[in-house]
Amino acid sequence: MGPAVELWKEREMEKTRNKYEKLSEMIRLWEDKKKKKAKKKLHRTEVTSSFCHSILCITIKLMYVMNVKRGVEKAKLKAKQRFIDDNERIEIIVASARTHAYESQMKEELKVKEKANLMRTTGRSPCKCL
User: Which terminus of the chain is more exposed, N or C, with fewer CB under 10 A?
Assistant: First the structure.
């Protein structure tokens, strides 16, 4: 029964590793997607602000343009701060998800090892609870 138990244990451990590798990849893809979205939003705000500023410089009086320029700069600063906040929030969520996935993987691997030890001592597989 020894080699059969070892084979079973290795198969189960491999299933668990594959499951959590896929989960890790999903977390990474989610992180990339969210960061790209935040960066695109920042870029869109900066481009829009720059475009509005250049049009206003051409068509409006100098005094009014100065006020608009300050408004454009405020909008850019606000967009950059929002980008930084979004990235921090994404990092926190990703770190939490990775930690949870790692803990779940360790628990599953521990269960497999316990079952394998039980199979070795009793000589049969444990009954399944329904």
Answer: C
